[in-house]
Amino acid sequence: MNFRTEIELSEFPFKLEMESKILTIGSCFSDNLGLYFQNNKINCLHNPFGVVFNPISIFRLLTKSINQPSVNSNYFTERDGQWYHYDFHSKLTSTNKKMLENELNTRLQKVRDYLQKANYLIITVGTAFAYRLKENNYVVANCHKQTSNNFEKELLTNKEIEVRFTQMYEKIKQLNPKIKLIFTLSPVRHTKDTLQGNNLSKSILRLAIHQFTSSFKDVFYFPSYEILMDDLRDYRYYADDMIHINSVGQTYVLEHFRKTAFSDKLNTFIDNWGPIQSQLNHKPFLPDSEAHQIFLKKLLQKLDKMSKTIDVSSEKEIVKAQII
Known about the structure:
By secondary structure, this protein is an alpha/beta fold. It folds into 2 domains: 21-263, Rossmann fold, CATH 3.40.50; 282-324, no CATH class. It is built from 10 helices and 10 strands. It has a 5-stranded parallel sheet with strand order 2-1-5-9-10, sandwiched between helices. The chain has a 3-stranded antiparallel sheet with strand order 7-6-8, with no helix packed on it. Strands 3-4 form a two-stranded antiparallel ribbon. Helix 5 links the parallel strand 9 and strand 10 (219-222). The termini are far apart.
């Protein structure tokens, strides 16, 4: 008897390669996927604006990067001596407003430069709930713990999401006609919106993504949400907060992404690189022992062999520093 339903994956009509340039943006899965790319030596710029949950803010940041890489000075806000910007995550902060502005402008310009040459843009949307400033109806990416009286919470409509996406899509294709877009829907549960509200929010986003993939031939969808909800379907794949996905669940989703999107050559490389990564992370009990020194020299030989394919100069320096 089969006690679970495994998801059926359709491979993308393209394959990510070692040489691919990838930008990830949006909710937590963009961070997870971006770090996975970086750890496996794939060229990736991941979540340069910090975690952003709602699609309007994501599309606005991408559009602004392309149109005019400078932040709107009207949306800085200060709390406890720290400056923030309503379009960006709270991790991007400074005690000096001008320094923060310069940093944000640098990031916008970096994204524009990267998008010009990128092969893929991966967007993860997290919630269709958004907060608008009451004074002018502006959708913020993050409230930065300012008083709730400043905001109005609302559920975004599919029409508004579709209009904002189309505007952003046209700008990106003008900048880089060959880029492909991959959407994912975050399985992270926004329980503060209630479970009923979370499910309503996810359904709106899933419908919006379906409209994008149906309307544009170079927009695709990877079912990270369905893998957690309908394939794994178990709380043991969530962290203790029962909201975020734990490392086992993340690994399962990433393995499915490999099957869907990676070339045979890239998969072979990752299979070979994985054991070396584990050895690099090994913490010896007796670092000066003969056995560990032999281990390090063999590891250095493996890195020398890998250096013909990828840049492992930093890893080699780490190993060399441990050899007596």
